[in-house]
Design goal:
It is built from six helices and eight strands, in the order αβββααβαβαβαββ. By secondary structure, it is α/β, with parallel strands linked by helices. It has one domain: Rossmann fold (3-Layer(aba) Sandwich). The strands form two sheets. A six-stranded mixed β-sheet has the order 5-4-6-1-7-8, with helices on both faces. Helix 4 links the parallel strand 4 and strand 5.
């Protein structure tokens, strides 16, 4: 079974290669900017009062950056966290599973700035997938703006916060 899972992963990655090549820059490297954060404070599966208050500060924390798209996993707390920045920019909140999210987002939006609201358990996977040289923002209120240079190279990480941290 373990071998079968690796084979499926390999087949899925091999099938994605032409798509990634078509969406990458001239050198074949993915480029663009991801604004990555964990959902706001929660109690069980929903945002709590602190989280609801915190998300009101998200648009101001990103006011100096362009935002071309806003994505998150389909969990209600992630959607609630993503909504203020999407509404401030007149964009929809788009949902997708976290599996392969980083590559999918950069491929779908080359050279653009995309917000990703994730969960503690999938942010580490996203960082490993994209080779981001930092620990993911797992504390409530942490944001990381990760720039993937055109032509490849080490992603640049800028740390920010929103709300009381």
């Amino acid at each position: 079974m373990h071998r079968q899972m690796h084979r499926r992963s390999f087949i899925a990655m091999a099938g994605a290669a032409p798509l990634l090549a078509a969406c990458a820059g001239p050198s074949g490297a993915l480029y663009g900017r991801l604004i990555i954060l964990r959902h706001a404070d929660r109690t069980f599966s929903m945002l709590n009062e602190s989280g609801e208050e915190r998300i009101t500060h998200l648009p101001a924390a990103l006011a100096d950056l362009p935002v071309d798209a806003v994505y998150c996993t389909p969990r209600p707390r992630n959607i609630a966290t993503a909504t203020p920045i999407a509404e401030a920019r007149g964009l929809p909140v788009q949902t997708m599973t976290s599996q392969g999210a980083g590559t999918k987002l950069l491929s779908a939006h080359p050279g653009q700035t995309v917000v990703w609201v994730g969960n503690q358990e999938n942010l580490g996977i996203l960082y490993a997938e994209l080779g981001i040289p930092a620990k993911p923002p797992v504390q409530f209120g942490q944001i990381q703006v990760v720039t993937f240079p055109r032509g490849g190279g080490v992603p640049l990480v800028e740390k920010r916060t929103y709300g009381a941290v």
